[in-house]
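Suppose you are handed a protein chain with no further information: no name, no annotation, nothing but its sequence. What can you learn? This example shows the usual starting point.
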Amino acid sequence: MSIADIKSNAEVKMAKSVESFKNELQKIRTGRAHPGLLDQVHVDYYGSMVPISQVANVTLLDARTVSVQPWEKGMGQKIEKAIRESDLGLNPASQGDLIRVPMPPLSEERRRDLTKVAKGAAEDAKVAVRNLRRDANEQAKKAAKDKVITEDDERRSQDEVQKLTDRVISDIDKLLSAKEAEIMAV
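A reasonable first move is to predict its three-dimensional structure. Written in structure tokens, the prediction is:
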């Protein structure tokens, strides 16, 4: 395995870690409404659990209200129950076929809790990136030990992987600070 292979492999895996972190951040709600907020809520649809987006239209009515329009008449109560029982702390209200999901304003204490959750997710992402760095460095050491690459190439590989790691961790920090600012904005 060449240095380029080791580096590109680590780069791809680190990019996946950053994507996973972005998905975690999207699950953390802020004071504003967005349709993706209900993505992790699943509803019972004829015996199988499916995301709400597969049984209803999820749109925004205004900055603080999500509307859910079920495609079938009988799904309204099931969707409403699924939203209410989710850990999002939302209280949906039915208006005929339309389900309105107002976003309650966040208290200062709840905002701080949400920033702690975001920091925890960021730390998990950083740990994953550091583990990938370790794996890449071990691959380089093994290649040098097996005489596939020279010791200078091994050192150069470790330096390149460290630069890549530093860049990815700074990206994670930027995403975290943007999310913290979004959460703390009133």
